Amino acid sequence: MMSKYSVAFFILSIVIGLLLTSKRNSDNGSFLLWMPNKYNVKNLILVAHDIPDSTDIVFQQFKKMTIKDSLNYPLARETGVKIILYQNGNNKVNGMIEESIAEMKNQFTR
Questions:
Q1: What is the domain extent for residue 26?
Q2: Model confidence at 11: pLDDT above 70
Q3: What is the pTM of this model?
Q4: What is the pLDDT of residues 34-85, one digit of tens each?
Q5: Tens-place pLDDT, residues 78-91
Q6: pLDDT over 70 for what percent of the chain?
Q7: For residue 41, which of 103, 105, 97, 84 has the smallest C-alpha distance?
Q8: With 0-12 CB in 10 A as exposed, 13-18 as middle and 19+ as buried, what is 59?
Q9: N or C: which end of the chain has fewer CB within 10 A?
Q10: pLDDT tens across 15-26, in order?
Q11: Number of domains in the chain
Q12: Is 88 in contact with 42 (CB distance < 8 Å)?
């Protein structure tokens, strides 16, 4: 079972960054339907207010987590949003992403 952070990662304002390639994906809005069915994620960029719990199964699949930056502009509604880089993901993370994307796409198929 995925935690609320994993769901937020897949549904809301999360960016899946495939670093070292030119591909970037987001499941935000109608972009979900354009997302590929297969992934080879080694690194991931998470943009979120909160850092996922250490018990989150998705983020446990990465060897290293670094907070790269945060937005600290008092007049922006996104103030406090962190940019977090997860590096060196194992092969399990790809299956988790593929399964979650398939479930979300399934809502729109007949």
A1: 4-106
A2: no
A3: 0.68
A4: 888 898 989 998 988 999 988 989 899 999 999 999 988 888 888 899 999 9
A5: 889 999 999 999 98
A6: 73
A7: 97
A8: buried
A9: C
A10: 343 333 445 555
A11: 1
A12: yes
Strand 16-17, strand 24-25: pairing = antiparallel
What does the alpha-carbon distance between residue 21 and residue 27 come to, in Å, rounded to a whole number?
Answer: 18
Q: Which residue has the tokens 């207010």?
A: 49
DSSP letters spanning the chain: ---HHHHHHHHSS--EE-TTSS-EE--SGGGGGGS-S----S-EEEEESSPPPTT-TTGGGEEEEEEEEE---TTSTTTT-EEEEEEEE-HHHHHHHHHHHHHHHHTT--
CB burial of residue 69 (10 Å; 0-12, 13-18, 19+): exposed
Tokens of 103: 């479930």
